[in-house]
Amino acid sequence: MEYQKLHYAVADSVATITMDFPKNLNAIDEQMADELIAAIDQAEHDAAAKVIVLKSAGRAFSAGGDIGYFYKLIQAGGEINMDGLINKVGKVTNGLKASSKIVIAEVNGAAAGAGFPLALSADFVVAAENAKFIMAFINLGLVPDTGGTYLLAKEIGEKRAMEMCATGRPVTAQEGKDLGFVYEVVPLEQLDEATNKLAQKFVRGPLVAYKNVKKQMYAAAFSDYVHYLDDVENPTQHECSNTTDFVEGCKAFMEKRKAEFQGK
Predict the structure, then answer these.
(1) What average pLDDT does the segment 143-161 reach?
(2) How far apart are CA 160 and CA 153, in angstroms?
(3) What is the DSSP track for 208-258?
(4) Which residues lie closer than 8 Å to 232 by C-beta, 6 or more apart?
(5) 11-12-14 Cα angle (round to 5)
(6) CB distance 211 to 101 below 8 Å
(7) Is the pTM of this model over 0.90?
(8) Residue 78: band (very low, low, confident or very high) from pLDDT cuts 50, 70, 90
(9) Tell me: the pLDDT tens digits for 103-138?
(10) For residues 23 and 128, what is the distance between their CA atoms, to the nearest angstrom?
(11) Which helix (H) or strand (E) holds 16?
């Protein structure tokens, strides 16, 4: 595949996938999702790559979904169908979780909406001090997708996950470390160095053991993940994306005003 919204490179036995579409803060639309699926598969089968790093160019890891695209559809009176996108972003996160290689997410700026569970899908999250993790879906009248509810509940427990998903409040990098889903917090200018140091530690480690630890971890904690994506996440997001609340949430976001939800 020819990549247009990301870059794939291998150096020092590390495959680096860099999301690079700053125009919309690396939002995950269908094209970005397709490219991520392809790049993750490429890294998985690349004999030169022993570790995978997922990062971004620009001032944000990922702003989540492309709300501007949906807003234009609403303004034009077009039909909004998110089913294809939701299916693809689930494949992205499952691909990272099921990978036989250690995955490190390098997060700077906002990891909002789909960007938050994308980061959670890594085995280790190295975050800059300016990183913010936001389950922003609720502010649009949506539920978390990209595996967000499932992954966050696994990481921090149901009660704390419920609070983040239901409020959509920003979580700092340090709070993420305190809660356990961020591995390390460093100043922004040290982010690349810290990520590379961790990646090289795993490059020099027992790769067969890492592969099998990941296989065990997936079986122990994520064996029902695909069932959750197909039978729970997809239909719940389908229902929410066909509400007047989603239309209002989308409009309010783009028009920079408070949404007036009606519960329908």
Answers:
(1) 97
(2) 8
(3) HHHHHHHHHHHHHH-TTHHHHIIIIIHHHHHHHTTSHHHHHHHHHHHTTS-
(4) none
(5) 70
(6) yes
(7) yes
(8) confident
(9) 999 999 999 999 999 999 999 999 999 999 999 999
(10) 21
(11) strand 14-19
